[in-house]
Amino acid sequence: MKIEEFKAGRFRQEYKYKSFVPNKVNQEWIWNDPKINSLLSEADLNLGNLNAFSLYIPDVDVFIRMHLVKEATKSSRIEGTQTEMEDALLKDNEIQPGKRDDWKEVQNYIQAMNHSISNLKTLPVSTRMLKEAHRILMQSVRGENKTPGEFRTSQNWVGGATINDALFIPPPQSEVNELMGDLENFLHNENIDVPPLIKAAISHYQFETIHPFLDGNGRIGRLLITLYMVGVGVLQKPTLYLSDYFEKYRTIYYDNLNLVRLKNDLVQWIKFFLVAVIETSKNGIETFQGILKLKENIENERIIKLGKKIPNARKVIKKLYSEPIISANGIVNFLNVTPATANSLIQDFVNLGILNEITGGRRDRLFAFTEYMNLFTKKTKI
Which pTM value belongs to this model? Predict the structure, then answer.
């Protein structure tokens, strides 16, 4: 199938509304547009550089947790939650009651990602894996009554208060299993020669068009991108998450997906997707460079001033790389030391510019590794 000649599907008259039934995608894909070639080459180059950093940095999995938190926050914000990354890093007993529902959705997303990535060691990306991720995503949150972990058995829609004023109506529930089976076959079809990034772009579009669940489709569809790229080895580590870019350009993201359905413009969607990979890879490389620079400065210049406290200081620093918000009680439990020792170490870190107090109170104070967190919250570049 030539991408420029792709027919996305057809609108089908249902009772009082028209649904969109997409055409299947499990086939060979070719194209004439040279811009796709140049963008694909640039994306592959930047992904290779990102992979090199992820393999070069010691204990990289410690830092990857922050990438996961950022992805969960951004992907959830696309769907309307208000949780910031700083909130997502808090523990259950530290989050304000008014923010708890959104916070829980982000935590579920983190758990679903970790669970799925762990399963990739023994299982390929599959509808079974996506259903399991969806089950975790919908636990004890809004939408928990919308058949978690199962494909929908009723019609859904996107946008609008009712189906009558919906922006988009996916295919009827009777079509979901066959379409998802075709998508799964496409992901694993070794008899067609389609570059993985092109496969990832087409698969994300197709998943969002099928909208197989009653809720949570956007988040699972974006998770699918990373799972597929890790599963086929394009990513050596789960370091590339596109939701930061998609959230920043949310309107363009949705418009480009919709242009495929309305105008059969798959070319524009693929170009947008490849640019997202390029820019996100560059930002990931910059983040890793910043981590290495900060790590060297703190461990070789700052905490060496602490004398006999250095062993404990090194342990706490390593913990802060994966959990950059901490309390004195957290250090007590982590190091098995007295409150006085923990408070003394925190004050040392404050004096060295490593931690700063963020609650403003006298009790139950929290301290943030702000300099490190800022590496992950910088704005996406164009």
Answer: 0.93
